[in-house]
């Protein structure tokens, strides 16, 4: 907090005659600027070398954040990296000017990295050479601690009493030069991250959940990069409207055509052609570019050349032999959607109902979201194909095979084993 902020806070107390009444929640103190001011943006190797030396010499955890240009640019690359460490202060690094941050990552590799919602930032950090060995995820820590709202602004206000400005989270971070208000916002994102980490560690320890959190953080840090999605075109928004294999083929042809153009232009695919336009084309299967131009999303200022390239993709789908058309349902590994269980396997539906009730009660007892106690997918898998025999030991083995951590297994295995036993069919007596 700056001297000006301290003075303002003291003045508020003097105006109200001292501390606020016990029954009045004190207003959060606005955090308007980093304590050392907004650092200059690092965009040259010389400046980066100075940052690397400073952070290598620093002490304690390193607060790390990254800003992307989701919705504006192709992919999820980082366009700004923010760091803060005791003894080094804050740094704002431009990955466009400094695309390889491997040396920086190596310099702080032995430190604990503090991130908020780590799984969102780690992929883009990995792309530029920054790979942690230990992390502390303040958002996940808040969930495990039962904090009701875990967005960075809300949790900082709740635990530290400061109000962060959050007005620039969805801006185009590929903009150059970055406006000063955006840089101030970005620097503030790491200003209190280590303080927040310390407060959450203390709360988790008080609740007896600190070891649980450490197991979760270790699993995130050690997780391999996610493999590419299979058939990403199937995730087109509005796909539920598309019926018939030929229409599915139209989506399958338009999606990669759009993706290739978006990648070449380095823009978000939705700015090239919206998902709704792809769906409209698949429903209509237009005969030619003129008919395509009449569809929503293809008229207006779209050039003839653009219309023809989209029509060419549609024509490729129309020309496919039946044997090469996509199947209507994507092959799903694991159990079917729970809504179909009552018809497909009533016994499995009964197991799932009992298991969900047990998990819900346990999550409420320890003040934690159910999905953090155990993922819904894991519960479904155990209930759809329960181990035989469905003992607590066998259930624990099944949970481990699905990636559950040890603390989750210890809490959940007895619950699921009991639920499976309670819903097991009665043995048939021999006559």
Automatic annotation (TrEMBL):
Organism: Streptomyces candidus
EC number(s) on file: 3.1.13.5
Location of the region described as Disordered in the Swiss-Prot/TrEMBL record: 1-32
SMART domains membership: 35EXOc (SM00474), HRDC (SM00341)
Record key words, sorted: Hydrolase
Stretches assigned to the HRDC domain: 244-324
GO biological process, one term: nucleobase-containing compound metabolic process
Protein name: Ribonuclease D
GO molecular function per UniProt: 3'-5' exonuclease activity; nucleic acid binding; nucleotide binding; ribonuclease D activity
């Amino acid at each position: 907090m700056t001297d000006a902020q301290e003075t303002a806070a003291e003045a508020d107390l003097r105006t109200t005659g001292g501390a606020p009444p016990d029954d009045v929640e004190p207003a959060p103190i606005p955090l308007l600027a980093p304590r050392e001011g907004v650092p200059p943006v690092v965009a040259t190797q010389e400046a980066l070398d100075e940052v690397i030396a400073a952070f290598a010499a620093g002490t304690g955890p390193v607060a790390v954040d990254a800003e992307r240009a989701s919705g504006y640019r192709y992919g999820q690359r980082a366009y700004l990296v923010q760091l803060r460490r005791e003894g080094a202060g804050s740094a704002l690094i431009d990955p466009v000017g400094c695309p390889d941050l491997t040396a920086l990552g190596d310099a702080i590799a032995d430190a604990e990295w503090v991130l908020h919602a780590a799984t969102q930032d780690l992929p883009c950090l990995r792309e530029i050479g920054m790979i942690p060995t230990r992390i502390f995820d303040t958002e996940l820590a808040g969930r495990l601690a039962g904090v009701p709202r875990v967005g960075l602004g809300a949790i900082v206000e709740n635990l530290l009493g400061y109000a962060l400005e959050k007005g620039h989270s969805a801006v185009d971070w590929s903009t150059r030069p970055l406006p000063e208000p955006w840089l101030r916002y970005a620097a503030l994102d790491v200003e209190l991250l280590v303080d927040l980490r310390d407060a959450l560690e203390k709360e988790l320890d008080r609740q007896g959940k600190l070891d649980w959190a450490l197991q979760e953080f270790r699993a995130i840090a050690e997780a391999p990069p996610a493999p590419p999605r299979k058939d990403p075109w199937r995730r087109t928004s509005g796909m539920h409207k598309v019926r018939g294999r030929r229409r599915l083929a139209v989506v399958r042809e338009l999606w990669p055509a759009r993706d290739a153009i978006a990648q070449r232009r380095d823009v978000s695919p939705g700015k090239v052609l919206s998902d709704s336009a792809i769906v409209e084309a698949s429903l209509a299967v237009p005969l030619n570019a003129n008919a395509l131009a009449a569809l929503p999303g293809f008229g207006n200022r779209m050039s003839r050349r653009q219309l023809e390239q989209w029509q060419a993709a549609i024509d490729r789908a129309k020309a496919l032999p039946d044997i090469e058309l996509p199947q209507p349902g994507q092959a799903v590994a694991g159990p079917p959607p729970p809504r179909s269980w009552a018809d497909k396997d009533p016994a499995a539906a009964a197991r799932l109902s009992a298991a969900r009730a047990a998990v819900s009660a346990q999550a409420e007892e320890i003040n934690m979201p159910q999905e953090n106690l155990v993922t819904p997918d894991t519960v479904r898998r155990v209930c759809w194909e329960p181990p035989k025999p469905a003992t607590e030991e066998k259930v624990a083995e099944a949970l481990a095979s699905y990636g559950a951590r040890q603390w989750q297994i210890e809490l959940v295995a007895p619950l699921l084993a009991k639920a499976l036993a309670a819903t097991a069919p009665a043995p048939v007596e021999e006559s």
